[in-house]
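Anyone up for a design puzzle?
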């Protein structure tokens, strides 16, 4: 009973002061039908911890697929008050993907996306980066936040000959990526 009372009192103490927690959705991911959500906690007057999660499990016509999930925790330093104005962040990211049949037809920072049309890639990634953002106050509880991040990602994957068949062509290949690692237009509700 004492333990339960301690937990309840601790939860109440954490929720008493204003602007300690925010929930958010990234409108860029929403536009691409990527289910996402995030929560951000205030830890000191100028520091917050943001954790976002993303999930996409869509298979499109003709076997095209863009399936992934990933997590992206971030520590943020706010120049003025937390949840308002300019901030710098340091983030980690990691997840899994299964993508193929997409007609991209171009290279992007060392990644040949034209191979996605005739191949399927299945693997995992992990990395880190830094970000800069700005949060606009829209109302008493609503904010709009813009953020861009740059960093590094390491990925290991298996490549399959075609999108629909299961013939594996390469196994355990790796790729190093340096470039944009975060882009967000977040709609935020601050408690």
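Challenge accepted. My sequence:
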């Amino acid at each position: 009973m004492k333990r339960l009372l301690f937990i309840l009192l601790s939860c109440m103490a954490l929720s008493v002061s204003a602007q300690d927690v925010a929930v958010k959705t990234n409108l860029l991911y929403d536009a691409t039908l990527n289910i996402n959500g995030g929560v951000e906690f205030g830890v000191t007057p100028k520091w917050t911890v943001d954790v976002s999660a993303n999930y996409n499990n869509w298979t499109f016509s003709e076997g095209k697929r863009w399936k992934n999930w990933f997590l992206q925790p971030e520590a943020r330093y706010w120049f003025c008050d937390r949840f308002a104005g300019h901030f710098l962040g340091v983030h980690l990211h990691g997840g899994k993907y299964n993508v193929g049949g997409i007609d991209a037809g171009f290279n992007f920072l060392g990644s040949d996306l034209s191979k996605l049309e005739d191949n399927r890639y299945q693997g995992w990634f992990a990395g880190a980066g830094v970000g800069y953002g700005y949060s606009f106050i829209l109302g008493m509880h609503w904010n709009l936040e813009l953020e861009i991040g740059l960093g590094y990602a390491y990925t290991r994957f298996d490549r399959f000959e075609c999108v629909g068949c299961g013939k594996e062509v390469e196994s355990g290949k790796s790729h190093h990526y340096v470039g944009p690692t975060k882009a967000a237009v977040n709609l935020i509700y601050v408690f």
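A detail worth pointing out: Helices lie at 2-14, 27-31.
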